[in-house]
Amino acid sequence: MTYDRASTPDSPPPKNNSYRPWLMVGLLLAAALVLFLTFRPVSQEEMVADDGEVKSYDPVVYDTSDWQTASQQSQDFEVLKGALSATATSEEALDFYGNKAMRYRFSTPFEPPFYVIESPNLFELVWYYAAPTDDDATKTQSIDFAKRSYRMMSMAGGDVGTKIVEQMLQGAAVSSQTVGGFVLERGACEDYRCQIILRR
């Protein structure tokens, strides 16, 4: 006696493949959703800007030929700070040698740094030294800070003071010079900041 193989009680039930189309549809929908969320159309401006050429950045130019100088000299720290700004916020700090001092900040917390650290015998002036990759607004602020520092140094030491700022802005480090009634401990522009330290 022969039996139909499909009808035997011991044969496994036929596999149900009806879920496969739904699985494929789900995977396609998930892939489409990922593409939709990550796709960002490129604007015409971006296509024009990205022409494959390496972007060049212009360095900051410090043309000191028409910068203002002070009409009179002073060795008073208060007068020198007044040449930098009429207003400042103050806080406790340490001077260049780690002694207790006061910091007078002439820029807001959202602007590049421009401040003085003052202790009984040291006057440290610091301002942001803009990089070629900075935006135009930051470069303009850096030039403005340099102009005010140039004027203050003319007040502290006349032509000697302004010459020091010029040398610093050209990349030279200056030290051990007499500037009016001060000794220049350090004057340099490096690592995105310019620093002048005067000692009484």
How would you portray this structure in words?
- The structure is a single chain.
- The chain has 200 residues and is α+β, with helices and mostly antiparallel strands.
- It has a domain at 64-199.
- It is built from four helices and seven strands; from the N terminus they run αααββββαβββ.
- The protein has helices spanning 19-38, 44-49, 77-84, 136-169; strands at 89-94, 100-105, 114-118, 122-128, 177-179, 182-190, 193-199.
- A seven-stranded antiparallel β-sheet has the order 1-2-3-4-7-6-5, with helices on one face.
- A hairpin with a 2-residue loop joins strand 6 (182-190) and strand 7 (193-199).
- The protein is elongated.
- The chain starts with 18 loop residues before the first helix and ends with a strand.
- The mean pLDDT is 87.
Q: What is the string of SSEs from the N terminus onward?
A: HHHEEEEHEEE
Mean pLDDT: 87
Helix/strand/pairing category: alpha+beta
Q: In terms of per-residue confidence, which ranges show pLDDT below 50 for 5 or more consecutive residues? A: none
Distance between the termini: 122 Å
Helicity range of the residues?
Answer: 25-40%
